[in-house]
């Protein structure tokens, strides 16, 4: 009871490099098992133990976000192609003007796309649901707000939301969507429930603002949820508050960007050339933000500057530089208020 759920969560992250279809198959089975265990009062407390090891949790979270991004990219690319092929085949005049070879190419491509979507969507649905139920736990939710994870989480959620309620949402409207396991209302419900869980946290709304999130998109999603009765009670109230939180955060982000526009080069991440919040020194002597090297090491366990093997335990905090940065930023803020 104490080890099964955490072991499965870790395994979900570890199968990242087992091959595209094998990985999807493994994770679909693991997702089903995790859902069953989560619903068991005997096993649920064990899920929290993964939060005690930050490195392991980040590996799991990276795995679940990589999976979701890959699945969503596949589904959102293939569904419009399926719709286009269906419309051509449903129009006798347009279809009849095509040569037999052209018809065969379209039919073959349609079959390939349908097969891939039918393969991807069940796991995509399960993964979004797993995001939802795991993050009802406050300890787990707090780790998704880490600087190493929150930007990727926000990017992923906003990408899916844009596809579902954005201006091109109709491109996803295919004939008989159930045959592909495509349930847009359920997907939107699960997605907005995740937004609602994070809505009141400053880190989340700040990251939405940094990503360039348009509050209008969020308001459209809120109206859709209300009209279709997808969320109720506290969840709906929390989601309704998010657009205003993001607007407030956007003003703060704009002010900070103005302050940081002339930051000295030594305060910038040597890989991304962005202002560092938590500078660390790599074994090679180069300085980057902790979130940058954490994300890099999840995909490639080497120092990006000399290709030598390393782990996150090999980095050292750049304490002197951090103190210098804090002093500089405080002086800038004081000067800006005058």
Automatic annotation (TrEMBL):
GO biological process, one term: protein polyubiquitination
Keywords recorded for this protein, A-Z: Cytoplasm, Nucleus, Transferase, Ubl conjugation pathway
GO molecular function, one term: ubiquitin-ubiquitin ligase activity
Native source organism of the sequence: Craspedostauros australis
Subcellular location: Cytoplasm; Nucleus
GO CC, one annotated term: cytoplasm
EC assignment: 2.3.2.27
Principal EC category: transferase
Ranges where the U-box domain occurs: 262-335
Family designation: Belongs to the ubiquitin conjugation factor E4 family.
Catalytic reactions on record: S-ubiquitinyl-[E2 ubiquitin-conjugating enzyme]-L-cysteine + [acceptor protein]-L-lysine = [E2 ubiquitin-conjugating enzyme]-L-cysteine + N(6)-ubiquitinyl-[acceptor protein]-L-lysine
SMART domains: Ubox
Protein name: RING-type E3 ubiquitin transferase
Record-linked Gene3D superfamilies: Zinc/RING finger domain, C3HC4 (zinc finger)
Pathway: Protein modification; protein ubiquitination
């Amino acid at each position: 009871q104490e080890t099964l759920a955490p072991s499965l969560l870790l395994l979900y992250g570890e199968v990242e490099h087992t091959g595209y279809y094998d990985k999807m198959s493994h994770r679909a089975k693991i997702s089903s098992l995790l859902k069953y265990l989560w619903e068991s009062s005997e096993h649920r407390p064990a899920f929290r133990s993964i939060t005690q090891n930050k490195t392991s949790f980040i590996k799991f979270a990276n795995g679940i976000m990589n999976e979701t991004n890959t699945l969503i990219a596949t589904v959102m690319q293939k569904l419009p192609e399926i719709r286009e092929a269906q419309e051509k085949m449903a129009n006798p005049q347009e279809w009849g003007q095509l040569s037999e070879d052209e018809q065969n190419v379209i039919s073959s491509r349609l079959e390939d796309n349908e097969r891939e979507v039918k393969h991807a969507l069940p796991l995509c649905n399960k993964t979004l649901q797993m995001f939802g139920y795991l993050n009802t736990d406050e300890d787990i939710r707090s780790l998704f707000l880490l600087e190493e994870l929150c930007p990727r989480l926000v990017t992923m959620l906003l990408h899916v939301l844009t596809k579902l309620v954005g201006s091109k949402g109709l491109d996803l409207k295919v004939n008989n969507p159930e045959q592909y396991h495509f349930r847009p209302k359920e997907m939107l419900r699960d997605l907005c429930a995740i937004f609602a869980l994070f809505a009141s946290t400053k880190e989340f709304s700040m990251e939405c603002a940094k990503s360039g999130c348009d509050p209008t998109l969020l308001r459209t999603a809120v109206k859709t949820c209300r009209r279709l009765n997808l969320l109720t009670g506290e969840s709906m109230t929390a989601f309704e508050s998010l657009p205003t939180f993001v607007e407030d955060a956007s003003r703060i982000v704009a002010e900070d960007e103005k302050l940081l526009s002339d930051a000295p080069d030594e305060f910038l991440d040597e890989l991304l050339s962005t202002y560092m919040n938590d500078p660390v020194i790599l074994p090679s002597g180069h300085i980057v933000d902790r979130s940058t090297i954490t994300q890099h090491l999840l995909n490639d366990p080497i120092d990006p500057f000399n290709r030598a093997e390393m782990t996150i335990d090999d980095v050292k905090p750049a304490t002197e530089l951090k103190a210098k940065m804090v002093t500089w930023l405080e002086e800038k803020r004081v000067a800006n208020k005058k």
